[in-house]
Amino acid sequence: xxxxxxxxxxxxxxxxxxxxxxxxxxxxxxxxxxxxxxxxxxxxxxxxxxxxxxxxxxxxxxxxxxxxxxxxxxxxxxxxxxxxxxxxxxxxxxxxxxxxxxxxxxxxxxxxxxxxxxxxxxxxxxxxxxxxxxxxxxxxxxxxxxxxxxxxxxxxxxxxxxxxxxxxxxxxxxxxxxxxxxxxxxxxxxxxxxxxxxxxxxxxxxxxxxxxxxxxxxxxxxxxxxxxxxxxxxxxxxxxxxxxxxxxxxxxxxxxxxxxxxxxxxxxxxxxxxxxxxxxxxxxxxxxxxxxxxxxx
Amino acid sequence: xxxxxxxxxxxxxxxxxxxxxxxxxxxxxxxxxxxxxxxxxxxxxxxxxxxxxxxxxxxxxxxxxxxxxxxxxxxxxxxxxxxxxxxxxxxxxxxxxxxxxxxxxxxxxxxxxxxxxxxxxxxxxxxxxxxxxxxxxxxxxxxxxxxxxxxxxxxxxxxxxxxxxxxxxxxxxxxxxxxxxxxxxxxxxxxxxxxxxxxxxxxxxxxxxxxxxxxxxxxxxxxxxxxxxxxxxxxxxxxxxxxxxxxxxxxxxxxxxxxxxxxxxxxxxxxxxxxxxxxxxxxxxxxxxxxxxxxxxxxxxxxxxxxxxxxxxxxxxxxxxxxxxxxxxxxxxxxxxxxxxxxxxxxxxxxxxxxxxxxxxxxxxxxxxx
Lengths: 297, 370
Known about the structure:
CATH architecture of the largest domain in chain B: 3-Layer(aba) Sandwich
Strand content of chain A: under 5%
Number of strands of chain A: 0
CATH superfamily of the largest domain in chain A: MetI-like
Largest sheet of chain A: none
Structural class of chain B: alpha+beta
Oligomer: heterodimer
Largest interface: A-B, 23 and 33 residues
Order of helices and strands of chain A: HHHHHHHHHHHHH
CATH class of the largest domain in chain A: Mainly Alpha
Shape of chain A: flat
CATH topology of the largest domain in chain B: Rossmann fold
Order of helices and strands of chain B: EEEHEEEHHHEHEHEEHHEEEEEEEEEE
CATH topology of the largest domain in chain A: MetI-like fold
Number of helices of chain A: 13
Number of helices of chain B: 8
CATH superfamily of the largest domain in chain B: P-loop containing nucleotide triphosphate hydrolases
Low-confidence stretches of chain A: 292-297
Strand order of the largest sheet of chain B: 6-7-8-3-9-10
Mean pLDDT of chain A: 87
Largest sheet of chain B: 6 strands, mixed
Radius of gyration of chain A: 24 Å
Distance between the termini of chain A: 11 Å
Structural class of chain A: mainly alpha
Distance between the termini of chain B: 41 Å
């Protein structure tokens, strides 16, 4: 495609400019170290044995690499009284995050489409009210939400958590899609209307396939939010239905026995891996989506 | 089957602004009607009303004798070509063209047959598996046409379909659209701001201004007998010369004395323009002279109703087949269309001859033709 090249632009030269560039890269390098250092400590600690952690410095490279701590964090670490590791809670998180992300993304896309392409009186007011939802702090909705879940009979369950995240996420997903669709030519929707398609026909067959970049952004955002959420998880689930974030907290904060730093580190990395994965996988589609065909040259 | 279209006292308002102010229009089946006018005159809104993409505020739209005020676009038996082409970017050319048939559940083999026929007709049969993003402007234009043609509706609506093409391609596609119309014989309503497109394509032209239709007639009538100054000034390139002046009589002959003219130039109205009623002495009028009716003295065979005058040339603009000479009468800029071999020098006097038989006369106050 016609990507604009910017690396050919003539830059200032001379010793002053060169010094500034060196300084720039030194600063950037320091920032990199600052951000990468904790990750390095976590990964290296997680593959050390407990003995090595106790004897050596936490900065030192591991002498021998062992994945025992990983296996324990996954399969046998104790969360409260149950010693099955993070695995069941990880599955809880998957069972919660995947439907919640898909539902909130789909509904957000539908909202954005209706708000921009099927304009109705009061559309702007409805959008403003929905936008307001994005600024409501989590804490404010805890009690009403708990009461609603109780009335619905969903208290303390994974489906209840799905509902909470879907509803809370709608403000954000609607915002993302509305802003994307506002840039999509109305002509395309009009053409599809003349071609005989209806509201849902146009949505699923024309508009939704076009919105891949918005879908990817929304999925990354929603997945990160929902997977990493602790407050809703700890408030609305109990014991066996806890998401992985709550279970991780229970593993790390256990007050009995020896503090197993390598298991804690491995557990923390396991709990964080899916968001990284989603970013890498979805990010690849994101780039592809951006370079897909445009409407007009 | 081609259908006729009838608009009866059609009005459309957006909020408090009335955009279409009572339009009546009767389009015969198989006609090619061009809606032309400056931007903001309401021509695209009128087209959207016919398409059903806008709801009428009052009045009636009839397609094929049936009132379609409350009929959604998909049930109006129309197809539309949009200015931006509005192709579906994620679908291949093939899927773009067949989309309308898919939604109408046309059998697959009928879809294939129609696709093949029209993609060959439009010479896009080698592009069927590409996405719109991989096509040039002209190719996209053809795909957009294909998408409209393939369903063979009763009425085609074109919304400035050629305005995004470069000049050369525009002329090619213009000819192709005319060919297609002659071949398919469907009713076409075509919106453009380009008066040359209007002249070349239309069987009848509706000149629009400010929500009204000023004149609805065949191209020759629009060009030769414009009903008012707006139509006269809009159609034709370069536009008609408009000379404000006053009438006076001398020896039974009516003349126009141009306002502010220092030289003794007075145009005798000895053609049809002098036959009107109420041509009283001192009446304020506007004399309309098309550039091609002013030429170099002696350049054409002598004829009746010629008038010779001399004026200094200000600017010489060669276009190739013709040369435009800009000069002044009074404080009015004038353009004459002369042959390239009629040598003129800027600043020097030039002898012009004008065919007063083709002159138009308008009332200065109302702008109506006299």
